[in-house]
Amino acid sequence: MPPTATNGLHLPGQLSPAITVKDSKETSFRLDRRLHGDYPIVVSGKGNHLLSKDGRTIFDASTGAAVSCLGHGDERVINAIRDQLSTGISYLASTFWGSDVVETLCKELISGTDGKMARVYLTGSGSEAMEAAAKLARQYFYENDKKTLRKNFIAREGSYHGNTLGALSISGHVARRSPYLPFLMGNVHHVSSCNAYRQRKQGESDEAFVAKKAAELEAKFQELGPETVIAFVAEPVVGAALGCVPYVPGYLKAMRDICHNHGALLILDEIMCGMGRTGTLHAWQGEDVVPDIEAIGKGLAAGYQPIAAVLMSEKVVRALSDGSGQFVHGQTFQGMPIQACAALEVQRIVREEKLLENVKAQGAYMEERLKSLLGNHPNVGDIRGKGLFWGIEFVRDKNTKEPFDPKRGMAQKVLDRAISPPNDMCVYPGTGTVDGVCGDHIILAPSYIVTKDDIDHITEVVSDVIHEVFDSVPG
């Protein structure tokens, strides 16, 4: 049963389906992701709940796309934004001006790496951050040698790094790339993901599995010519493309060592899995494998402002500083004071209220509950993740790991059932989990303020929904 409304929201009133077919007479001026349906209209939010226009109280168990890590309506963040607006300065062109709040945010972010990163470049979105990271990596070599041969990136299959053409080129998600293949860069090459559920042989140890991945990356360097490779790019915990697939212990270090052995850079995309989502502020801190360049985003300002960032090591900064003295890149809406003040307050709250401790504790409890409730379900192939970032992969056959036909839209069916009355819960569906086309999963990524009772509610509703959906679908 759904909980009673809390945090100032009212109890559900008139109930209606989550997504309804549009009336042919109705005109919408908004281009939605799905053109043939209507979405619930949200009118307010508080804590873990959203109130829809039709009077329903919906538990946000995915925080959008793992964004609203403080929940909704946090008064400290709202007041910080209001105070910044009252100065009359919400936007400043970073080409001309500096800002104390921007500088303070950057200092906060570097402090969060224990000083292991050196500078911060603020952007407006995760895709922009990855675009900037790719350009920064190329410029690192260009500053030292204008005739450098380094032009290739190595990324991974089953990855997603953003929607700009550069970021989409680096991505390895087949379905999302397919419409734009003629536009994409030809200097990006892919190796397999680090997906133990689908790739580890029976009885294979972590060490053996990592050694196999290291050999594959080394072979790709040799195939391309080590002197031509700019960087290896990876998400430590793969988000939307694979559904919270974590690195195997030792993997990040092995990948970094191969890159550095050949003078290449390690770029980590932590846009979805970073900023506390996996239990450490940065996912790489789980094994202290410091990247040369890192992209962060979604949890940075918890959705209160659109902002992302690129963090870079001292050696990358030094190359620019000793060379041209500039980063040859820029966008209009970057480094804005209004963005920075929101992100700064979010990061202060996470640190001061010790929310990462709650992420670890509630994440461990969520793992326990999910595996207890769904571990034996015949259509649940894998439950994986870290912190408050959990994926559930669905299979047609548990023994063979065969996925469902993508035309059946199983992940979407789970969302549609979950977000509809009486469940009233939002989860994040994903497809292409197996090969970029086939495979279904959902992601659970609740806020860092969730309680044990909230975890009980999330896991019970999700379990009920999964049973309902798969019980009603013939194999």
From TrEMBL:
Q: Per the record, a Pfam family? A: Aminotran_3
Q: Which domain of life is it from?
A: Eukaryota
Name under which the protein is recorded:
Aminotransferase class III
Q: Does the keyword Magnesium apply?
A: no
Mind listing the UniProt keywords for this protein, alphabetically? Pyridoxal phosphate
Q: Which organism is it from?
A: Oidiodendron maius (strain Zn)
Task: State its cofactor.
Answer: pyridoxal 5'-phosphate
Tell me the protein family, please: Belongs to the class-III pyridoxal-phosphate-dependent aminotransferase family.
Q: Name one GO molecular function term.
A: transaminase activity
GO cellular component, alphabetical, reads:
cytosol
What the entry lists under InterPro entries is as follows: Aminotrans_3, PyrdxlP-dep_Trfase, PyrdxlP-dep_Trfase_major, PyrdxlP-dep_Trfase_small
Q: What is the lineage of its organism?
A: Eukaryota, Fungi, Dikarya, Ascomycota, Pezizomycotina
